[in-house]
Amino acid sequence: MSTTIATKPLAGRVAVVTGAASGMGAATALRLAADGASVALLARRADRLEELVRTITSAGGRAIAVAADVTDDEQIAAAAKRVAAELGRVDLLVNNAGVMLADPITDLRADQWQRMIDTNLTGVLRVFAAFLPALVESAEHGTADLLTVSSLGAKVTFPGYSVYGATKAAASYLSQAVRGELAGKGVRVTAIEPGLTRTELADHVDHPELSAQLDGMFEAVPALAAEDIADLIAYTVSRPKHVNLPTVMILPTQQA
After folding, report:
1. What is the pLDDT of residues 159-189, one digit of tens each?
2. Half-sphere exposure of 5 (CA within 13 A, CB side)
3. Angstrom distance (rounded) from CA 56 to CA 160
4. Mutual angle of helices 23-34 and 226-237, in 10-degree steps
5. 112-150 burial, b for 16+ CB within 10 Å, e for fewer?
6. Is 164 a catalytic residue?
7. Model-level pTM greater than 0.90?
8. What is the DSSP string of the chain?
9. Which pLDDT value is given to residue 206?
10. Of 161, 164, 173, 235, which is the active-site residue?
11. What is the distance between the alpha carbons of residues 52 and 63, in angstroms, rounded to a whole number?
């Protein structure tokens, strides 16, 4: 039996997913739309976003593509205005955009350090700032969710991933602290911390030894798929309004 709009758990909600061009972001956008939300897809690669929009709308969902870079203040501010104009007030934000660059700390790759900070931390804050007023207002009328996709690296150290892990630890801490500030306003705040997951992030690693090490992990451990993360996010945001899952770690069964 097909699921009707009346039984879809996110019917009537307006979601924004950053980093929506691929991986966890794309899978999450598809899942939220399938569950009834109107979804704004934010990322830099406009062609991929448009393709996802066609996939969603052909299945009866509603979505718009918003090409924007989370490291650019003006682009994110403009994106927030466009989403409000075309979809309405946002009540579900998935702050997912991120990069994973790996090098031994002794390589002193300050360029890569800065890129991760700009995307994984400052970018998260920039998106917070653009959509938080809408989330607070939405919480006055119904459910409002603010999710950040962090990483197992926020809790566990991996040689060669020091700065990446530091940015994700900061993102998880920020989520915890923000929850303390927004709980009284009714906004649910969640950090999702995935372990080994097969996405494009692995392709960002260009250090030969670390890249081979990561390939070995994928060979040894059946990794999570992007759809597993999307499923967890969909579950989290479909809980009753009074239920908040503050931090959720998700790992492959065989990842110790």
Report:
1. 999 999 999 999 999 999 999 999 999 999 9
2. 9
3. 38
4. 50
5. bbebbbbbbbbbbebbbebbbebbeebbeeebbbbbbbb
6. yes
7. yes
8. -PPPGGG-TTTT-EEEEESTTSHHHHHHHHHHHHTT-EEEEEES-HHHHHHHHHHHHHTT-EEEEEE--TT-HHHHHHHHHHHHHHT-S--EEEE---------GGG--HHHHHHHIIIIIIHHHHHHHHHHHHHHHHHTTS-EEEEEE--GGGTS--TT-HHHHHHHHHHHHHHHHHHHHHGGGTEEEEEEEE-SEESGGGGG---HHHHHHHHHHHHHS-PEEHHHHHHHHHHHHTS-TT----EEEE--TT--
9. 75
10. 164
11. 9
Per-residue pLDDT tens over the stretch 104-156: 999 999 999 999 999 999 999 999 999 999 999 999 999 999 999 999 999 99
167/9 Cα distance (integer angstroms):
33
Question: Quick one: 184 exposed, middle or buried, by C-beta within 10 A (0-12, 13-18, 19+)?
Answer: exposed
Residue 203 in tokens: 């392709």
| CA gap 150, 162 in Å, rounded | 14
Per-residue pLDDT of 243-255, as tens digits, reads 999 999 999 999 8
